[in-house]
Design a protein that fits this description.
This protein is mainly α. It has two helices and two strands; from the N terminus they run E-E-H-H. It has helices spanning 34-47, 54-57, and strands at residues 14-15, 21-22. The two termini are 30 Å apart.
């Protein structure tokens, strides 16, 4: 999802009073085959944004 400016919208995981979780704005996609799953994952990957900082490169917790 995007905001009014077309920027990617941050999705927050919320906890329901019953202890379950939900993500407001999350899109549900029905799939009927493995090909549908792979297509949905490709769409998700194309919308994914990953960034880092110089600090991340030197962190003891950063992954190689």
């Amino acid at each position: 999802p995007t905001d009014d400016k077309g920027e990617p919208k941050k999705l927050d995981v919320k906890q329901n009073p019953d202890g379950g979780t939900h993500v407001p704005g999350l899109k549900v996609a029905r799939v009927a085959s493995m090909a549908d799953v792979e297509a949905a994952l490709r769409v998700g990957e194309s919308h994914r944004h990953v960034s880092g900082t110089e600090m991340n490169e030197h962190s003891s917790r950063s992954h190689m």
